[in-house]
Amino acid sequence: MKPSSPAQGPAEVDVVVVGAGIAGLYALHKFRSRGLTVRVLEAGDGVGGVWYWNRYPGARCDVESVDYSYSFDEALQQEWDWSEKYAAQPEILAYLEHVADRFDLRRDIEFGTRVTDVVLDEQTLRWQVDTDTGRALTARFVVLATGPLSNANTPAIEGLDTFAGRVLHTSHWPHDGVDLTGERVGVIGTGSSGIQAIPCLAEQAQRLHVFQRTANYSVPAGNTLLTEQDRRAQKADYARRRQLSMASGGGSPHQAHPEPALAVSEQERRAAYEKRWALGGVLFSKTFPDQLTDPAANDTARLFWEEKVRAVIDDPRVADLLVPGDHPIGTKRICTDTNYYQTYNRDNVELVDLKTTPIARIDAEGVHTTAAHYPIDTLVLATGFDAMTGSVARMNIVGRDSRTLNEAWHEGPKTYLGLGMTGFPNLFNLTGPGSPSVLANMVLHSELHVDWVAEAIGFLETRAAVALEARADAVAAWVDECAARAAGTLMTQANSWYLGANIAGRPRVFMPFVGGFGVYGQIIAEVAAAQYKGFDVIEA
Ligand code: NAP
């Protein structure tokens, strides 16, 4: 047990928020402004969540800075100056620290405090929250703001623990940075994190071995510095941008082409793809409205992508390995890079194809594949996350009848609207399974969820009711609806972390709500307007 946190507040509060990332910070501000007593418990020693931990070189957001920022306070929007179109990790972290200071949030956050248990007292309908510092709180409401991508996945590779060199995980990069000059570096993993880190690592390392099991689609970020004129224009346009974003499929103001990909001429289609390519990054998968539902439409995007990428890779055999052949484009999150494919033209970079020569084991000196031994000084694991449910599953959450959330979710997460769970009254999960989650802009999504929970708490107060609890029939219907919507797309065809496919033993369930951010916002607003239909409102 760690020593007790110095920030000791009241043991009884209205709301405990778990996590001081984007959602947790806003939750604290919002609930506090509603007159509620709030404590935020945060495992890290600072605010920022993923942006606190993921400090690997090249870490950068794939949503434009102007959109990946809070909308709740006009003065904040106007005073903060983003320096780049797609901000890098240090700037996003500085922004979140600024928000914490500006709204005086730190006094209600207990850092270095990891929640271990969240247990319901069925008599009082209060939650007891225990932590690894020994600090315990009770609360009427518990809000899980742990984030869908916060529980690192370290692969079970034989001998990893015998490696004598340095092992780093992209999601827990040392805060003081790492000097890899002159080193032989190995990277395992070519998802978004690996693809961003690899070009930077290649510049430092004497030799870089990239161990690739599955190729991914990556689109250049097209990042640029913002000028003062850009910033002025963006700030003047916030109201429109936000409105479009809230109604959109993914939480940004860019609209898909009005017609399906195959309904337009070849010339028009190419022009649309070129425009998205120039915009950069993840939105390429939403150039046309049917791109993720119609295989033929998807193919037009894939072929455009392939032509662009092959053009910048010198060795056609290397290009063959870097072009995915196992899933439609966009069915895993499209990665966003800066000079990723060009990095393989460097003399000091080697791509190791684990499909044909898998890793057999790791020893003290390096990595053995079935074909060769690669001596390595530093091994970088860019192996992702136990996503969507991983951080929630790490806590022992115990609801009615002593049933744990892990038991309730053993066949896959079961929620109503992503927010509520049967047997867990007044426990709200933010931006997790059953909501658009990682398919949307996480900042606006966090605001949407926090505002909804704040309204729900207000509703209980006006009714002098004590709790809101998702009904079992509503949960079942929502789970079915989410599954049916996913089945109507190509998204279930990839072995993605959206489906838990990257973690052995996880049930294969498409976890995010795929129906669009705007549509989802309407659904949860309608539920609230209908007196929280689908929830039991528990009277005192
Ligand atoms: P990821 O997409 O899950 O990628 C993990 C990589 O590690 C995959 O290439 C995977 O290969 C590989 N891997 C895992 N276990 C392995 C093993 N035992 N042997 C060999 N390879 C192994 O994780 P991520 O790159 O951290 O990205 C996760 C998500 O975080 C992204 O999709 C994105 O939503 C978010 N993210 C966003 C940004 C951004 O804003 N630009 C940056 C970083 C992360 P397989 O595919 O074969 O399993």
Automatic annotation (TrEMBL):
<dbReference type="Pfam" id="PF13738">
    <property type="entry name" value="Pyr_redox_3"/>
</dbReference>
<keyword id="KW-0274">FAD</keyword>
<dbReference type="InterPro" id="IPR050775">
    <property type="entry name" value="FAD-binding_Monooxygenases"/>
</dbReference>
<keyword id="KW-0521">NADP</keyword>
<comment type="similarity">
    <text>Belongs to the FAD-binding monooxygenase family.</text>
</comment>
<dbReference type="GO" id="GO:0016709">
    <property type="term" value="F:oxidoreductase activity, acting on paired donors, with incorporation or reduction of molecular oxygen, NAD(P)H as one donor, and incorporation of one atom of oxygen"/>
</dbReference>
<protein>
    <submittedName>
        <fullName>Cyclohexanone monooxygenase</fullName>
    </submittedName>
</protein>
<feature type="region of interest" description="Disordered">
    <location>
        <begin position="238"/>
        <end position="261"/>
    </location>
</feature>
<keyword id="KW-0503">Monooxygenase</keyword>
<keyword id="KW-0285">Flavoprotein</keyword>
<dbReference type="InterPro" id="IPR036188">
    <property type="entry name" value="FAD/NAD-bd_sf"/>
</dbReference>
<keyword id="KW-0560">Oxidoreductase</keyword>
